[in-house]
């Protein structure tokens, strides 16, 4: 039943957004009673934060190909699919907007980002340091910005409908060079 | 009076967000009548789109230092100030969220981004091609993603309160290397 509720939250978030979403609406969509939802999560905020956290870590493996560029390439393959999912591309901007007014959501979003993509990116960086491909004392946060920013910009901000052929390969090469220059 | 209305729109957007904002609220805040607002803009949507477009181009010079890295550095100085303005950091995510549900806003945001930062970034790229610093046939859209993504990610998505010393210098160096690798 938890899965039915999670699925209903995604649909409800995508349809009406966080501000207008209600526990009633979620329960109706999931075909359960309101109490079934409240037994698992004590508020709409906690429900969404739980879902966000799960979304961030879900399905992101830590690649280990032995080279920074190819590790980045695998990370981008997974991330671009996740970001371009229609549900994610509506929900992420919505929660970002809420985060600007709600410090609890802002903190949960940042934590989800750190626990999800950033922890994978951190493993990739640590492995590259271990191989001597990049400097051990580089600005780790800046490296994470270089890894995460461009694809997010393209998929979520510019909302480009489709990545051209060769895009992820060129992005991986360019980002690897950028990090080596730090 | 147009300036008073513009200022009121910024304050109202930051305070209540696009969805809850009304022409009445804007007029009240600006100390004018509703008709004064409607004489200039025919709807809330058109008013906000106009403001967004103005925000994007405002105060962004096209740097021309003779080097890609230092041109990027100047662009980042201006952009980081603009993005970190409290009003912008609330309004941009808000409009991004609306863009996910409203194609008209999505299109205006994209146009504003293109007309603003991206046109400056395009001039920087064209100058670098002219000097032979970067390839003439590189993927221009990918280069723009590399230029715009990391700082946006850091300032608007991660919402990092302060950039550490040396950040923009290192970002400019790394991004120049990334684009040279395309």
TrEMBL record, chains A, B:
Any GO MF annotation of the entry? transcription cis-regulatory region binding
- Name the DNA-binding stretches: 22-41
Upper classification of the source organism reads:
Bacteria, Bacillati, Actinomycetota, Actinomycetes, Kitasatosporales
Tell me where in this chain the HTH tetR-type domain is found: 1-59
Asked whether the keyword DNA-binding is assigned, the reply is: yes
Keywords, sorted A to Z: DNA-binding, Transcription, Transcription regulation
Its protein name is TetR family transcriptional regulator
Q: Where are the transmembrane segments?
A: none
Q: Which InterPro entries match?
A: DNA-bd_HTH_TetR-type_CS, Homeodomain-like_sf, HTH-type_TetR-like_transc_reg, HTH_TetR, Tet_transcr_reg_TetR-rel_C_sf, TetR_C
Taxonomic source organism: Streptomyces naganishii JCM 4654
